[in-house]
Amino acid sequence: RVREAVVSTQSTGEERKRLQVVNGPHKSDKAKLVKLADKLYNLRDLSREAPVGWSEERVREYRVWASRVCSGLIGTNKALEGKLREELTERNGVPFPYKE
């Protein structure tokens, strides 16, 4: 199921991001679970230490994008969704679920 959660590397970075938002809700529950766990891990890692060269604005943009991706996966796992809400909204002020 991990393969289903992976986005093709043939697309540009922005296109891959867009496709995760658009296609996420249509994946299997197992693929959604992998995606939720992966985003939570990445967000927690980002809170510990941003990658070299990332500005505060880029960090915020990543968090907003991750919220958009995960918002399309709500209903998959309440525990993970609660942890994402805590990480995004309570710790970093990014709405989850994200409203366009």
Task: Summarize the structure in words.
With 100 residues, this protein is mostly helical. 66% of the residues lie in helices and 0% in strands. The protein has 5 helices and no strands. Helix 2 (13-23) runs parallel beside helix 4 (56-71), helix 3 (29-48) packs antiparallel against helix 4 and helix 4 (56-71) runs antiparallel to helix 5 (78-92). The chain is globular, with a radius of gyration of 13 Å.
Quick synopsis:
With 100 residues, the protein is an all-alpha fold. It has 5 helices and no strands. The radius of gyration is 13 Å and the shape is globular.
Question: What layout of secondary structure does this protein have?
Answer:
Elements: H1 2-5, H2 13-23, H3 29-48, H4 56-71, H5 78-92
Helix pairs in contact: 2-4, 3-4, 3-5, 4-5
Q: Report the major sheet.
A: none
How many helices in DSSP terms? 5
Strand content: under 5%
Global morphology: globular
SSE pattern, N- to C-terminal: HHHHH
How helix-rich are the residues, as a percent range? Answer: 55-70%
Question: What descriptors fit this protein?
Answer:
100 residues; mainly alpha; 66% helix
